[in-house]
Amino acid sequence: GSGAPMTGRQGLETRMIEKGLIRYIKAGNNVEAFQSNRPSPAWMGFMEDLKRGAFLGLGLPYEFVWDSAKIGGAGVRSMVGQVQRTVDDRQSVMFQPALTILLWAVSRYMRRGDVPFAFDWYEWDFSMPARYSVDLGRDSQNERENLAVGTQTLSQVLGAQGISVADHLNERAADYRLAVSIAEETGTPLSFLLNMGAKAAPAPAPAPGVDDDKEDDDAAEDPEDEEEDDMPPARRTRQ
Predict the structure, then answer these.
(1) What is the arithmetic mean of pLDDT over 72-93?
(2) Among 17, 72, 183, 225, which lies 20 to 30 A Cα-Cα from 45?
(3) 4 vs 83, which has greater pLDDT?
(4) What is the pLDDT of residues 38-60, one digit of tens each?
């Protein structure tokens, strides 16, 4: 704070200052807020070049593991293809060593008697993980169309999803047998149980052993009922 100016001897003007500091800036100078520019933009560009070079050595695009916001749809599809090619190449390199280790382990287990001997003990394969995708809906539609026209096989479609064809067909067979059993037990049409998109079930069929025409046959065999049916409505009312 500052008090009112006071006039001393010989015209000297003084001012009382309490708990404060006044700085005088020379002419031509100014006061600016501190700005941090480290690391500098040039250094950040150099670091990005280093990262791109590292990912290039891995066979992976830079946008796959760091920043994909700068590429459009075509760039994303190109990136997905490059990533999958790298994964396929890595799997092909690791396949034979992994199979050799697996067969050695199986042979040791059979020799020790831990697993029974099988003539086809060496016929093994690996279920690969699902293929990398950024648009599962479009990829699934393309696979269905390719499968329908015959340009792709069921093994190729399921293999892209990491599913074994044998396991898939066994599951479908098990589902079908279960649907047949439930349809016979409840009288529900089999088409409704297998069609997951059905909105409403039709009326259930009659249970086995029940003859719907039995009552009609009994009525035809009773002569009194036939005579009553032949009477006019007024006569039947009086009776």
Answers:
(1) 82
(2) 72
(3) 83
(4) 888 888 889 888 888 888 778 88
